[in-house]
Design brief:
The protein is an all-alpha fold. It is about 75% helix and about 0% strand. It has helices at about 1-30, 35-40, 50-55, 65-75, 90-125, 130-145, 145-160, 180-210, 215-220, 225-240, 240-265, 270-280, 285-310; strands at about 80-85, 90.
Length: about 325
């Protein structure tokens, strides 16, 4: 237990260090941008005097290290800055967009996990037989499908031709209208999950095959324990250790893919926010969105690391 607590403590200690590293990287990369924040807010018709006044009022004339210090002070107070001529809050924009991206990522993750575990287990149990060969072909096809390309096909089939699923429109709240939420999220989630299903299916199959060939499985089967019991209680749990490691990278794929999928399906998440920020030259909004997405990725990977520690007891002794 002490080793487990130490490992978890290391991950938590590393979190603020990584957060500071991300803020430094994002801030100074955006500081090198040729875009002038003053003109992006005031408009191209603003005079140089007005732009200079804006820079002085918002500390843009200070040295970069001073600007970074002020930015970090603002972040610690929950202030991401403002954008646009209306001086809209970056924090409020992120607060409204981030839940939608997380909902889409979570929905895609659930679909990917369910189907990859089912297909991976079936493929391993019927190794080198026709179900295995069929699933392996399907997984290769899924891996080769870009999410944005599949999204277009789904829209053409289920929205344009059949008219059974909406490709745009307002996203209902899940708790007030679960049916409407599922209908609106179905195509984006599937488009996001399919490539991950192909990748995770192959990983789970390989891990299951390795586990099924171990001596303890043959011993348990020789002792008369039903194969289904051995697979469910021992093989599956041990076989999921390696896929959980890969899952952290796949979550990054889901988060990055969600940003693109949101634009295709007109979901007002982080993808639409960063598209608006880039097209309108809202530097602080770009900075805030990129920072939050990066931090989300870091936090999720730390959670995956902790899950890996809990699943594999051998790691606790390190």
């Amino acid at each position: 237990m002490n080793n487990l607590l130490r490992l978890i403590g290391r991950r938590l200690i590393a979190l603020p260090i990584m957060v500071i590293g991300v803020t430094i990287l994002v801030f100074f990369i955006m500081a090198l941008s040729p875009i002038d924040q003053a003109y992006s807010v005031l408009g191209e018709n603003a005079t140089e005097e007005q732009a200079q006044q804006y820079r002085d009022e918002h500390g843009l004339s200070d040295p970069l290290i001073v600007q970074y210090g002020n930015y970090m002070i603002g972040l610690c107070q929950g202030d991401f800055g403002t954008y646009g001529a209306s001086q809209a809050s970056v924090g409020e924009k992120i607060a409204s967009a981030l839940p939608i991206t997380l909902e889409l990522t979570f929905a895609g993750l659930i679909i990917a996990l369910i189907f990859s575990v089912i297909l991976g287990v079936i493929s391993a149990l019927y190794r080198d037989k026709w179900p295995d060969q069929l699933i392996r072909v399907i997984s290769i096809i899924f891996i080769a499908m870009p999410s944005f390309w599949l999204a277009v096909l789904l829209i053409l089939l289920f929205s344009s031709n059949l008219g059974v699923l909406p490709a745009s429109g307002e996203l209902p709240d899940f708790f007030t209208d679960p049916g409407g939420w599922i209908a609106r999220m179905a195509m984006p989630s599937i488009a996001l999950a399919v490539p991950v299903i192909g990748q995770m299916t192959r990983v789970i199959r390989t891990s299951m095959v390795e586990e099924l060939d171990k001596d303890y499985v043959r011993t348990a089967l020789g002792a008369g324990i039903p194969k289904a019991t051995v697979v469910a209680r021992n093989v599956l749990r041990n076989a999921l250790i390696s896929p959980v490691t890969v899952l952290g990278l796949r979550i990054a794929h889901l988060i990055g893919g969600a940003v693109v999928i949101e634009v295709i399906f007109n979901l007002p998440g982080m993808g639409m926010a960063i598209l608006q920020a880039i097209t309108s030259n809202y530097v602080l909004l770009v900075q805030g969105v990129v920072l939050v997405v990066a931090l989300s990725f870091i936090i999720i990977n730390i959670i995956v690391d902790m899950l890996y520690i809990l699943i594999d007891p051998r790691i606790r002794t390190v």
